[in-house]
Amino acid sequence: MSTPPSPPAPAVPARPRDQAAGEPATDETPKRTAAVVYNPIKVNLAELKKSVRKHQKKAGWAETLFYETSVDDPGLGMAKAAMEAGADMVIAAGGDGTVRNVAEALRGTQVALGLLPSGTGNLLARNLKLTLDHLDSSIGTAFSGTDRRIDLGLVEIENPDGTRDKRVFVVMAGLGLDAQMLANTNDRLKKRVGWLAYVDAIARSLRDNNALTIKYRLDGGERKSMKTHTIILGNCGLLPGNLLLLPDAAIDDGLFDIVALRPERKIDWIGIWVKIVWENGILRRSRAGRQIMRLAPDLKTVRYMKGSELVVRLDSPQDFELDGDSHGMAVAIRARIDPLALTVRVPA
């Protein structure tokens, strides 16, 4: 697969140079404009508009623009329309899919991404340690916070029919069991019990013989083969339930953290679970715990790698996911990091 060319950044009005991020406008400076791209199923629009009006006035911003997502366009087109209308910031109000689509539109521009976490995942907000499930606090951060640059993942996907798609992800992309779990998730159960629905999906996924053989090349190095159940590329490593899947991942280091889970027997999943929950989530947080980890033998069923580009070819079509959303099947992927390509609003 050839390296996908980077699409040109959309033309975006420059941010007024004499107004700092989060600083109220004066009579002499043009007011900045925000836009909200919202999923109508995920948000209460009346409450959202009430909070936006309060914080835009306090920060001295102009009237905010609102764009509703649809099944046909989950946010990409709306975010582009917001930039064409002159937005200096676009707030993604919805789940991880809304965030990913807005981020794709904002990639490489001066326009900042504001986050209004909603739904069960909230992967980017969790990894940035933003407030979850508090609308007014999140809107306040968008209008009065500061800008932080983070990396983005770019991926070219080869579909089973030979066509190719190019996508962006902000947190993680996964092949194999990880993506199969998402494909097996019962949407009705997810609405009722949230993240616990994935436990049911994992159980159903593990019934299948889901081992796969991949050929991969990291950073243009030697082509290698590996048998695995899933391979995950992460821009950051924290999952819901405080599960630290990729403990060394940093959102702005210009690198992917990669993990391959390679159990040979079903009982090996216990060791994998212990490593992720006990070692990564508990022992790693203290000096004594890290000493215990150094004495423990390496777990061959969990393999970690780092790099800025990964090419993977599969022996058969496999499920593929981006930021917790199922993409469908893939026979090959080429993923590379786009360093500091996205600006996100965080607390000042």
Core attributes:
2 domains; ATP-binding; transferase; kinase activity; ten-stranded antiparallel sheet; four-stranded parallel sheet; disordered N terminus; Tumour Suppressor Smad4; 348 residues; alpha+beta; Rossmann fold; 10 helices; phospholipid biosynthesis
Major pleated sheet: 10 strands, antiparallel
Number of extended strands: 16
**Helical region count?**
10
Q: What order do the SSEs take from the amino end to the carboxyl end, as H and E?
A: EHEHEHEHHEEEHHHEEEEEEHHEEE
Distance between the termini: 42 Å
Q: Any low-confidence stretches, pLDDT <50, length ≥5?
A: 2-21, 193-206
Q: What helical percentage do the residues reach?
A: 25-40%
Q: At the first level of CATH, what is the class of the largest domain? A: Mainly Beta
- Integer average pLDDT: 83
CATH-defined fold name of the largest domain: Tumour Suppressor Smad4
Bin the strand percentage.
25-35%
